[in-house]
Write a structure and sequence with these properties.
Elements (H helix, E strand, L loop, with lengths): L4 E5 L3 H12 L3 E5 L3 H21 L4 H9 L1 E4 L10 E4 L5 H14 L5 E5 L5 H5 L8 E4 L11
Helix pairs in contact: 1-2
Length: 150
C-alpha cells in the first residue's frame, strides 16, 4: 500500500511538527485536535517554522504555500477514515492512547497503519486496544521535529 494521506492526532509541539515534515515530504496531511483553538495554534506554529526556513534561505515562499496547502485541520477523529497512516501525538498517558487507538481501529480502513509517537510507553499494550496489532507501530520523533535529520 502506498501512503498518500496522513492523519496526525495532536496539534501541539510534536503533532504540528510531524504534520509539517509530512507535508514538506509531499504527503496530504490532516492535523487534528480536540479544539479548534488547538489546531489554529498548530497551524500558526507551522507557518512560523516555515517562515524561519525562508529567512534562513532554506525554503522559498512558493514552497511554503505548497506545504501549507497540503495541510487540512479538523476536530473530528472520524476524518481519519481515509488515512493510509495515522500518527498519534497525544500526551504520554497510556489510557488516553489506548482509548484513541480503540477509536481509530473502528474508524480507519483495514489496511491503515496506526502509529504512536512515544518514547517510553509499551507499544504492545497500545496495540492490544485494537483488533490490528500487526498494523500498529511505535515511532519517536525528536523535538523540534522540523530540524530532526533522517
Amino acid at each position: 500500500m502506498a501512503i498518500k494521506n496522513i492523519f496526525v492526532i495532536g496539534a501541539g509541539t510534536m503533532g504540528n511538527g510531524i504534520a509539517q515534515v509530512s507535508a514538506q515530504a509531499g504527503y496530504s496531511v490532516t492535523m487534528s485536535d480536540i479544539k479548534d483553538e488547538f489546531v489554529s495554534k498548530g497551524m500558526a506554529a507551522i507557518e512560523k517554522s516555515l517562515d524561519r526556513m525562508i529567512k534562513k534561505g532554506t525554503l522559498q515562499e512558493n514552497e511554503k504555500k505548497e506545504i501549507m496547502a497540503r495541510i487540512k485541520t479538523t476536530t473530528d477523529t472520524n476524518d481519519a477514515k481515509d488515512a493510509d497512516l495515522v500518527i498519534e501525538a497525544a500526551p504520554e498517558v497510556i489510557e488516553l492512547k489506548k482509548s484513541i487507538f480503540k477509536q481509530l481501529d473502528e474508524i480507519c480502513k483495514a489496511d491503515a497503519i496506526l502509529a504512536t509517537n512515544t518514547s517510553s510507553l509499551p507499544i504492545g499494550e497500545i496495540a492490544a486496544a485494537t483488533g490490528r496489532a500487526g498494523k500498529v507501530i511505535g515511532i519517536h520523533f525528536m523535538n523540534p521535529v522540523p530540524v530532526m535529520k533522517g
